[in-house]
C-alpha cells in the first residue's frame, strides 16, 4: 500500500506535509521519531481513522483520492483489511478473552459461532494465550492483554496489522512476550506497520525504517544504514542516541 503527497492539518497546524510513503506487502515498516512528529496520524490515515485533506491512497490497487469524499463502504472495506493495535489494548472489559476475539468475526464477517470460536482458538494459540479464553481482561497482565489485542486484530485476517506503540505501556519483562509474538508474525511475512520507541527492537524487526519529524519524512530506507554510526544525518544520530 502507498500514500502519495498526503497533507493533514488540525486547525492551522500542518501535521503531515506532503508525505509520500510505501508500505510493502509482506514486510515490516517501522515508524520512529520524536513525540508529536505525526507517526500516529500516518498510521491512522492508513485505516482512515484520520482523513487527510489531500493526497492519494493506494490500498492493494484500490485508489482513494482524499480530495473526494470517501464512501462508508470504502472506509469499512479498508478498516477490515487493516487491523489496528493500540498502546492501551482497548479490549472490551465486559467480554471474555474468547469473546473479545470472536466479536469482529461474528459481528463484522458474519461468521457462525462455532467457526469463530475455532478461529479464536487458533489466533490465541499463536499469541500464547490459548488457555485464557474464559478470562476477563481485568485479570490479565498488560503483556497478556496486548497479546489478546493482537489476536483480535489477526482474527479479522487483515492484509496489514497496524501497531501504535504496542509495548509503550509495558514493563520490560512483559514487553518481551509481545515482541516475541511480533517477531513470529514477521517470520510468517505478516504485513505490518509499527510505531515504536524501542530502537533495539526496531533494528531487529524492521525491513524498512521511516524517520518522521515535524510532519515530514526525514529517512525512508534500510535499517542498517539508519542505525549506522556513519549515518550522515546528525539529527538522526542524536535521536537514536537519545533513545538508547
Ligand atoms: P506522534 O504519534 O508522532 O506522537 P501524532 O500523529 O499523534 O504524533 O501528532 C502529530 C501532531 O498533531 C501533534 O502536534 C499533535 O498534537 C497533533 N494532533 C494529533 N491529533 C490531533 C487532534 N485530533 N486534534 C488536534 N491536534 C492533533
Ligand atoms: Mg503517537
Q: Which short descriptors sum up this protein?
A:
6-stranded mixed β-sheet, single chain, binds adenosine-5'-diphosphate, binds magnesium ion
Structure, briefly:
The protein is 39% helix and 25% strand. The chain has 244 residues and is an alpha/beta fold. The longest helix has 16 residues, at 172-187.
Describe this structure in words.
There is one protein chain. With 244 residues, the chain is an alpha/beta fold. The protein is 39% helix and 25% strand. The chain contains nine helices and ten strands. It has helices at 39-46, 72-81, 97-107, 113-126, 142-154, 172-187, 199-205, 223-227, 234-243, and strands at residues 2-10, 13-22, 28-32, 54-59, 62-65, 82-85, 160-164, 191-195, 208-213, 216-221. The strands form two sheets. A six-stranded mixed beta sheet has the order 6-7-8-3-9-10, sandwiched between helices. A four-stranded antiparallel beta sheet has the order 2-1-4-5, covered by helices on one side. Strand 9 and strand 10 (216-221) form a beta hairpin. Helix 4 crosses helix 5. It is globular. It starts with a strand and ends with a helix. The mean pLDDT is 96. It binds adenosine-5'-diphosphate and magnesium ion. Residues 39-40, 164 line the site of magnesium ion (MG).
Amino acid at each position: 500500500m502507498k500514500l502519495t503527497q498526503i497533507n493533514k492539518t488540525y486547525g492551522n497546524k500542518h501535521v503531515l506535509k506532503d508525505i509520500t510513503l510505501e508500505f510493502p506487502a509482506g514486510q515490516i515498516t517501522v515508524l520512529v521519531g520524536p513525540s508529536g512528529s505525526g507517526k500516529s496520524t500516518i498510521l491512522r490515515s492508513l485505516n482512515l481513522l484520520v482523513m487527510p485533506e489531500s493526497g492519494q491512497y493506494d490500498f492493494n490497487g484500490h485508489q482513494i483520492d482524499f480530495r473526494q469524499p470517501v464512501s462508508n463502504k470504502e472506509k469499512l472495506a479498508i478498516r477490515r483489511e487493516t487491523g489496528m493495535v493500540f498502546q492501551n489494548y482497548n479490549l472490551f472489559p465486559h467480554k471474555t478473552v474468547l469473546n473479545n476475539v470472536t466479536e469482529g468475526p461474528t459481528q463484522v464477517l458474519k461468521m457462525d459461532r462455532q467457526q469463530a470460536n475455532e478461529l479464536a482458538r487458533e489466533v490465541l494459540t499463536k499469541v500464547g494465550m490459548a488457555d485464557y479464553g474464559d478470562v476477563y481482561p481485568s485479570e490479565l497482565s498488560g503483556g497478556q492483554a496486548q497479546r489478546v489485542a493482537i489476536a483480535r486484530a489477526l482474527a479479522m485476517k487483515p492484509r496489514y496489522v497496524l501497531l501504535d506503540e504496542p509495548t509503550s505501556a509495558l514493563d520490560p519483562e512483559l514487553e518481551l512476550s509481545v515482541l516475541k509474538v511480533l517477531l513470529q508474525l514477521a517470520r510468517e511475512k505478516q504485513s505490518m506497520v509499527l510505531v515504536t520507541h524501542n530502537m533495539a527492537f526496531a533494528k531487529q524487526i524492521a525491513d524498512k525504517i521511516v524517520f518522521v519529524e515535524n510532519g515530514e519524512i526525514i529517512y525512508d530506507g534500510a535499517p542498517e544504514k539508519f542505525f549506522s554510526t556513519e549515518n550522515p544525518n546528525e539529527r538522526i544520530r542524536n535521536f537514536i542516541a537519545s533513545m538508547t
